[in-house]
Specification:
CATH superfamily of chain B: MetI-like
Number of strands of chain A: 10
Domain ABC transmembrane type-1 (chain B): 80-272
Number of strands of chain B: 0
Oligomer: heterodimer
Shape of chain B: globular
CATH architecture of chain B: Orthogonal Bundle
Order of helices and strands of chain B: HHHHHHHHHHHHH
Strand content of chain B: under 5%
CATH class of chain B: Mainly Alpha
Subcellular location (chain B): Cell inner membrane; Cell membrane
Function (chain B): Required for the activity of the bacterial periplasmic transport system of putrescine and spermidine.
Largest sheet of chain A: 10 strands, mixed
CATH superfamily of the largest domain in chain A: Periplasmic binding protein-like II
Shape of chain A: globular
Pfam families (chain B): BPD_transp_1
Keywords (chain B): Cell inner membrane, Cell membrane, Membrane, Transmembrane, Transmembrane helix, Transport
CATH topology of the largest domain in chain A: D-Maltodextrin-Binding Protein, domain 2
Structural class of chain A: alpha/beta
Chain lengths: 346, 285
Amino acid sequence: MRISKILTALAAGTMLTATTMAAQAEGKLNIYNWAGYTPPELVEKFEKETGIDVTIDTYDSNETLLAKLKAGGGGYDIIVTAHTFIEVNAKEGLIQKFNPKDLPNYKYLDKKFVDPSWDPESQYSLPYQWGTTSFAVDTAVYDKPIDSFETLFNPPAELAGKVGMLKGGSDLIAMAELYLGVPLCSEDPAEMQKVLDLLLAQKQSVKVYAGAAALRDQMVSGEIAMTSNYSGQVQRARAEKKTVQYVYPKEGVIAWVDALAIPADAKNLENARKFADFLLAPENAGALSNHAGYANGSAGSEEFMKPELIEAPELHVPEGIKTEPMKTCSPAANELEAQIMTQLMQ
Amino acid sequence: MNAAIPQSGSKRRARTADQSLNRFAGFGTITVLLFAFLYLPIVILVVFSFNASNTISVWEGFTFKWYWIAAQNTDLHKAALNTLLIGGVATVVSVLLAIPAALVLSGRAETGSGGKYLLILSLPLMLPEIMIAIATLILFTTIGLNLGIGNVMIAHTVFCLPFALMPILARLRGMDHRLSEAAYDLYASRWQCFRLVVLPLLAPGIVTGAMLAFIVSFDNFIITLMVSGAGGTTLPLYIYGLVKTQMTPELNAISTGVLLLSLALLSTAFVLTKGRILGVSGMSE
């Protein structure tokens, strides 16, 4: 049928024209990052300095990123992921060694990020942004001094029914473990039963389990008066509502790092290394913090940061407060966490 | 004469029944509530896109700030451009493939073998989208296909095909085939018959199919999430990512823009098909 052939040829032509636009060009860099986490002005600066054309794609969770890498990488040259996923990705051969120590600007890296526990020889990653996870309270609703997770997990009458909690299992459970003195990523069913009991008892006072951005919004609007959240989100909430206060409990806070890594099948390795080096420069690291609202890993970046960010209590852990880094849980621990979340969300 | 009396009586009864259905107690209220439930969230979304606050739920005054921020957002521009490009290609290709498929299927319908082919082509309508997404991802990974945005275009085209096909096929089946026979009688070639007789009659079905295909592609999240590679972020992916991390009225501004685009598309299709796209025959008479 001639008509059919003509139309099919036309369809194939349209598809071919469109797909050739997607071909990899030289001088390209493909980045996969959290939405709203890459400052456009910093990307423009990098493009001007190097002539490299940068494409940024965004994702919504570490699990999405992991799935993408396992399915063949998606053609990305740089990924930004939670430090706990660096270990997983390295073991599975999904990311490659790119020897950050050889980069010219490595000298600016803050000492606490040299050879970290998740990347013992600093071969696979560099810190992108870092922060802590604790909880915040609206002092207009509850103004008594708070120094423990006790207030979050056993809320006083003023806060009952006005509590928000991060719905991600790892965040939720890690805080409960910290409060109970249970090791993070525990594989002991008896210990994890205590965690479940605590969270089930707290559930009566919880108004919402939600994502970080939604909890920040509800805190500002007054729908909730106390919530677990990330330091940067609380800092943003306080900018909107001065009565919001980030709490540093005596039990400590969870520390996390969003790390930069290079996928195993990255096609533009040298460009990726250039970008990693570019981000280590204090002025660029400072610009990154100004945009994202978290601390960075470069020493000397403070002079390039906004004053309100430098002074932000959410970004500076007080002396004597323990920071417990998030851990990469074993399959057995993950299974227990999944069981807890299933029962909690019923 | 007598035979006509019951007929008019039954007509009268039917009309009375119809009127009583229209005036059924509570139907009006239910309709109002239904419209409120459907459109109130959209109204709130649009209103809060002009909110001066940095949060989406606290009103602090009127501003166009978020539209300006969205207009400056290069990531958003790329995502929007990708969405339009993918949607455009998927629409054009799926419609171009749907027309010959519809012609073949309508011909086969007479012999009775069209049903099984139609069933195969309709599978994307019946299978859970997550299944199609995973299957497509596995296929692309297995054959090593990594065209970035091209992967999304191919996946969307396949998924949009039945949506483009159904209205064209319906239009073709409702067509008076004596018209094409008359064209052949007047010595028209198959191409002339198709171009001058069949295609103009199919036009409303093609426009409807194209619109359906475009909307399905424009809205698609699961398949895009699974198969997209470097440079393949679309508006749904970008907006979802923002919901998880940002939550400012910029989201409302972006969504309002998408809403306006959808309305513009619908209005264009409405005018082009003289109202037939919504089943409004009055405009075409």
